[in-house]
Amino acid sequence: MPVLLIAIILGIVEGVTEFLPVSSTGHLILATKLLGFDAEKWAAFNVIIQLGAILAIVVLYWRTFWAVIEGLIRGNAMSWRFVRNVLIAFLPSAILGFILIKNIEALLGNAYVVAVAFVVGGIAILVIEKLAKRSDVVGIAELPVSTAVGIGIAQCLAMIPGVSRSGATIMGALSLGVERRTAAEFSFFLAIPTMAGATTLEFVKHRHELLAGASGVGLGAVAVGFVVSFVVALVVVRAFVHYISRHGFAPFAWYRIAAGLVALAWLVMRH
Predict the structure, then answer these.
(1) What is the pTM of this model?
(2) Structural domain of residue 132, as residue ranges?
């Protein structure tokens, strides 16, 4: 299969799944297995194109970012609390990720782990949706520090491929009494430092191979995947926020369970 076609497929998968509670990394790993790609060859590509999806958040919420920047300059307390909460929630995964980076990388090629995590994560979403207390706390700046810390700890679960970073943070927020839309948007904003850090590490680590186009995956393929993931994420995020505000997360949970069971059956049949 041509390299650019693979880049487009993976870009679409990334753009659709990055901000849904279904695990973009898990889908990219399963896509690699399903279509017979060389997982190691595309590992850096899969991480770096996530920046395309992250850029979609910057574009969609540019007014929020601009207001926060202006507020920081003026010394506005709400803006400082907004930044504080995002940074505090980012720290647990940054620290744990640095410590466990080799263990995390060892799991990234394991499709069985992804399939099981899909099923377990889907069940967890159904349980949390049913049991989580409803809250009137709206707005990221309104969250107490303890809640931001709790969401950050929940995000660490996403180091297991297939768990879903957005799913872990959103469900963590719901468990701590944050309402749906705020939980989803906090997950979006938290993705920016989290994925920017992960992408920077991957680019530094694989810069020579990418610049040289080693194994056929060069900067051209990365650029295509980046643009595709950006455009697709623009559409998906807007629709996702509109949907979950009215209907909740249960459909995503059932999708995870079904996809995980199908993936497990397929993996077992292959061997």
Answers:
(1) 0.86
(2) 3-270
